[in-house]
């Protein structure tokens, strides 16, 4: 068995976090399920599928780089497929469903190559191929958006762009603007082949049509999450007669996205965060470690922690890592928590309780668990997977190219931040991302950016949560107005237990049975239906879940609820819970 030397290094220059594991020898046999030599896979005009990850097939599709000049340079789109259990020659076979997990910049290949693909197949049914792709400019698709000449340069600089709270210090806003200016300058200077301007949503929508036609189909079946809803809405507006089925889930207001305006994205963000205190009070001291009798007392305690961390960060020396717990780190964990409260809120409560006593270890470990993945240098393997960090550069490539020109001046940036801050206190963690566009190259804004009004060949199913931190239900309803016959299905639960991003962040039999009926039978739910969920944020100690996840990542379902379910439904809840807990490894804010 061949031995491969692999070194993993995490360099997070923000907050002084360092995690280093020395180059270690690992058996390549254990890597076969997670690696594939994409650089040896040829790109072609037709889909030529090759066995890749376990029970998966991969391909590269050649598409025009510039659809206005298709005979010139080409791009290569990396695809992955989990085949239907039904023969493609059977009358029961329903073709591919194309999945986009969001971002912009999230890898569809990564999303489908693990257990997520199998879970989606269980939700949707055995007669579909589950297909996804890395959008142009991202990860394994080429040309790739890359602003850094070396992986080490990327690992040292990118965290400083993403991780600082704009409320951390007196000069934090100015520093974010300055870092964003450098990022935009690097993007323009290192666009060596001139491909950067062609990485945008319109071209990705056209790539999707090429994927559909390469499958021998005329119409698209699609499920898109978060930014994937912008991609879906763009496709539907551009090609309204090419819709077989389309679900957009956790909906971004595409009009605002293309305008470069994130204000309405945070309409429900404070409600999502405030629910932590409300849920904690309702749960009581036995279930919430940061309990206080009132939400005001919990909020006051959190403010006291903020004040102490601004004045004096807490040093943490763990077994494999060390660093500082400071104000920005706490804000980052809180922002991640409102994305997935069923998973992170129960862990955040004891971390806050420890912080109140001056111990930052639990918060530090939370950040390590859900923050950026370690930078991995696959020292001796030229066929290694491309780095996760390339997806981050893809975010700016797509958003900055799509959006109206973001003003370059500091005063304009500060004014925009104040406007978003008036909507949500969590603006301090989202506005640094927008700063990456302030010095973006001045490419022509000729790509499609609306209007999002169409009479599609099949009505869209639009899914929204009652209090999503970055894609509010109001955006789902707004986008539905433009697509004739579309229906909004709301996912909800008793109290304040639904504050997560997209419907796959918590199991709901109601939601996913409607989803399956839509894809399988073309049956839309009645307008106004509100679906409940199965889990609780602060569960009782005797709650349980069938899947054997990490004790720190388990999403628990009350036993009384499980007892009401059939064996088939229990299995579905189990797999939906697994999807919700595992998907955090891939899906980061925006």
TrEMBL record:
- Gene3D superfamilies the UniProt entry points to: alpha/beta hydrolase (3.40.50.1820)
Q: Does the keyword Hydrolase apply?
A: yes
Domain AB hydrolase-1 stretches: 96-266
Peptidase S33 tripeptidyl aminopeptidase-like C-terminal domain span: 435-531
Write the record's keywords in alphabetical order, separated by commas: Hydrolase, Signal
Span of the signal peptide: 1-23
Kindly indicate whether the keyword Ribosomal protein belongs to this entry: no
Residue ranges annotated as coiled coil are: none
The entry lists its GO molecular-function terms as: hydrolase activity
Q: Which family does it belong to?
A: Belongs to the peptidase S33 family.
Q: What is this protein called?
A: AB hydrolase-1 domain-containing protein
Source organism per UniProt: Mycena chlorophos (Agaric fungus)
């Amino acid at each position: 068995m061949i031995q491969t030397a692999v070194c993993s290094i995490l360099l997070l220059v923000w907050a002084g976090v360092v995690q280093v594991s020395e180059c270690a020898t690992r058996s390549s046999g254990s890597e076969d399920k997670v690696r594939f030599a994409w650089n040896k896979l040829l790109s072609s005009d037709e889909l030529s599928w090759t066995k890749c990850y376990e029970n998966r097939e991969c391909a590269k599709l050649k598409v025009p780089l510039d659809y206005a000049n298709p005979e010139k340079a080409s791009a290569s789109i990396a695809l992955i497929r989990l085949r239907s259990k039904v023969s493609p020659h059977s009358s029961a076979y329903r073709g591919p469903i194309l999945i986009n997990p969001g971002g912009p910049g999230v890898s569809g290949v990564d999303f489908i190559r693990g257990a997520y693909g199998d879970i989606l197949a269980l939700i949707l049914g055995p007669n579909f191929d589950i297909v996804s792709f890395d959008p142009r400019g991202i990860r394994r698709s080429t040309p790739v958006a890359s602003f850094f000449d070396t992986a080490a340069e990327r690992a040292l600089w990118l965290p400083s762009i993403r991780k600082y709270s704009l409320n951390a210090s007196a000069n934090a806003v100015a520093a974010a603007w300055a870092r964003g200016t450098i990022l935009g300058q690097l993007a323009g200077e290192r666009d060596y082949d001139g491909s950067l301007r062609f990485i945008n949503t319109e071209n990705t929508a056209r790539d999707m049509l090429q994927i559909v036609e390469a499958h021998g189909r005329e119409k698209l079946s699609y499920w898109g999450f978060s930014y994937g809803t912008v991609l879906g809405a763009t496709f539907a507006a551009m090609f309204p007669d090419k819709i077989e089925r389309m679900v957009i889930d956790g909906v971004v207001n595409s009009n605002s996205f293309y305008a470069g305006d994130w204000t309405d994205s945070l309409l429900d963000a404070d409600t999502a965060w405030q629910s932590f205190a409300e849920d904690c009070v309702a749960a009581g001291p036995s279930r919430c470690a940061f309990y206080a009798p009132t939400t005001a007392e919990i909020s006051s305690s959190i403010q006291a922690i903020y004040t102490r961390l601004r004045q004096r960060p807490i040093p943490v020396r763990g077994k494999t890592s060390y660093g500082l717990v400071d104000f920005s780190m706490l804000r980052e964990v809180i922002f991640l928590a409102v994305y997935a409260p069923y998973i992170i809120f129960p862990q955040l409560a004891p971390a806050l309780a420890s912080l109140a006593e001056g111990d930052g270890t639990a918060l530090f470990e939370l950040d390590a668990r859900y923050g950026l993945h370690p930078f991995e240098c696959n020292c001796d393997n030229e066929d290694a997977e491309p780095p996760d960090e390339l997806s981050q550069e893809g975010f700016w490539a797509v958003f900055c190219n799509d959006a109206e020109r973001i003003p370059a001046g500091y005063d304009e940036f500060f004014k925009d931040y104040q406007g978003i801050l008036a909507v949500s206190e969590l603006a301090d963690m989202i506005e640094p991302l927008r700063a990456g566009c302030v010095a973006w190259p001045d490419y022509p804004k000729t790509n499609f950016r609306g209007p999002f009004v169409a009479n599609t060949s099949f009505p869209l199913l639009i899914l929204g949560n009652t209090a999503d931190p970055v894609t509010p239900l109001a955006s789902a309803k707004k986008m539905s107005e433009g697509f004739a016959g579309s229906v909004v299905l709301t996912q909800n639960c008793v109290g304040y237990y639904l504050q997560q991003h997209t419907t796959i962040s918590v199991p709901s039999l109601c939601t996913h049975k409607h989803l399956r009926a839509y894809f399988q039978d073309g049956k839309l739910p009645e307008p106004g239906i509100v679906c409940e969920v199965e889990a609780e944020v602060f569960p009782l100690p005797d709650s349980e879940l069938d899947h054997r996840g990490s004790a720190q990542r388990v999403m628990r379902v009350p036993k009384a609820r499980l007892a009401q379910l059939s064996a088939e439904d229990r299995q579905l809840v189990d797999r939906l819970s697994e999807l919700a807990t595992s998907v955090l490894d891939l899906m980061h804010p925006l």
